[in-house]
């Protein structure tokens, strides 16, 4: 009898700020805006969209729209979400 393949859920590993930081940093390294935003959306889903909405004051519907595949969050709401996720952005000089 063959085992059913399991479906990988990337959000299942995003249980603490450290793993969320690595996940989002990897997305940032791609320089692909849609991928970055969608990755933050995965972190929000893993955290709990309803809980995130409660802690940020951003509705679940807005979170889904802003941090979906075609989302484009403003800096204010991005920073609120990252704060609740326990991560922060930093800037370094780009090496060429």
Q: Could you list some keywords that capture this structure?
A:
single chain, 96 residues, mainly alpha, 5 helices
Description:
By secondary structure, the protein is mostly helical. Helices cover 55% and strands 0% of the residues. The protein contains 5 helices and no strands. The chain has helices at residues 17-28, 33-47, 49-56, 60-66, 75-85. Helix 1 (17-28) packs antiparallel against helix 2. The longest helix has 15 residues, at 33-47. The protein is globular and about 55 Å long.
| Content of β-strand | under 5%
The geometry reads as globular
Q: How many beta-strand elements?
A: 0
Low-confidence stretches: none
Q: Roughly how much helix do the residues carry, as a percent range?
A: 55-70%
State the separation between the terminal residues, measured CA to CA: 53 Å
Q: What does the radius of gyration come to? A: 15 Å
Question: Structural class from helices and strands?
Answer: mainly alpha
Mean pLDDT: 92
What's the main sheet like? none
The number of helices is: 5
Could you state the order of secondary-structure elements as H and E?
HHHHH
